[in-house]
């Protein structure tokens, strides 16, 4: 049983997420709040299996899948594929909107632990795509060894 104080603290902690969901005109539900809570606490991108582990049996797999798909569509999360081709998710920049992602930054993938970091401060190079191609997105992955794995050596 949680005490009244714990419950209140929990609600206060969730307030930014409640506002975020309202901003995107999404109903505030516990699965959505839990997913946002976990993703915002993690510095690197997170995969669905990883989320499942952290959520335990709070949310069933189908609901989680729908929450992630919905967040991606709305411009709350963006998807990055790791070196094994598994989809991982990270929070979007504030400029993302429904059907229009603007996460034009480099992703750093660690070849040891497979963690993915959004390097927001690095802008993507301008590419001169031939006029007969319509450019929708550019994905740049930098592969190397993350800070944590370097320390373990
Ligand atoms: Zn985005
Ligand atoms: Zn690493
Ligand atoms: Zn990113």
Automatic annotation (TrEMBL):
UniProt entry tagged with the keyword Transcription regulation: yes
Cofactor binding annotation: Binds 1 zinc ion per subunit.
Highest taxon above the source species: Bacteria
GO biological process: negative regulation of DNA-templated transcription; regulation of secondary metabolite biosynthetic process
Keywords: DNA-binding, Metal-binding, Repressor, Transcription, Transcription regulation, Zinc
GO molecular function: DNA-binding transcription factor activity; transcription cis-regulatory region binding; zinc ion binding
Residues reported in the UniProt entry to bind Zn(2+): 110, 113, 146, 149
Cofactor(s) annotated in UniProt: Zn(2+)
InterPro entries named among the record's database cross-references: FUR (IPR002481), Fur_C (IPR043135), WH-like_DNA-bd_sf (IPR036388), WH_DNA-bd_sf (IPR036390)
KW Metal-binding (keyword) present: yes
Protein family according to the UniProt entry: Belongs to the Fur family.
Protein name per the record: Transcriptional repressor
Source species taxonomy: Bacteria, Pseudomonadati, Bacteroidota, Sphingobacteriia, Sphingobacteriales
């Amino acid at each position: 049983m949680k005490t009244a104080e714990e419950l209140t603290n929990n609600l206060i902690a969730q307030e930014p997420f409640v506002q975020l969901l309202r901003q995107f005109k999404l109903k505030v539900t516990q699965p959505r709040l839990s997913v946002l809570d976990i993703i915002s606490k993690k510095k690197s991108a997170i995969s669905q299996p990883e989320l499942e582990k952290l959520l335990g049996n709070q949310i069933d797999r189908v609901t989680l899948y729908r929450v992630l798909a919905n967040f991606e569509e709305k411009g709350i999360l963006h998807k990055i594929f790791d070196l094994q081709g598994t989809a991982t998710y990270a929070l979007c920049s504030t400029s993302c909107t429904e059907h229009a992602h603007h996460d034009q930054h480099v992703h750093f993938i660690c070849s040891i632990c497979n963690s993915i970091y959004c390097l927001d401060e690095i802008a993507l190079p301008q590419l001169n795509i031939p006029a007969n191609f319509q450019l929708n997105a550019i994905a740049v992955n930098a592969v190397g060894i993350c800070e944590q794995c370097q320390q373990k050596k």
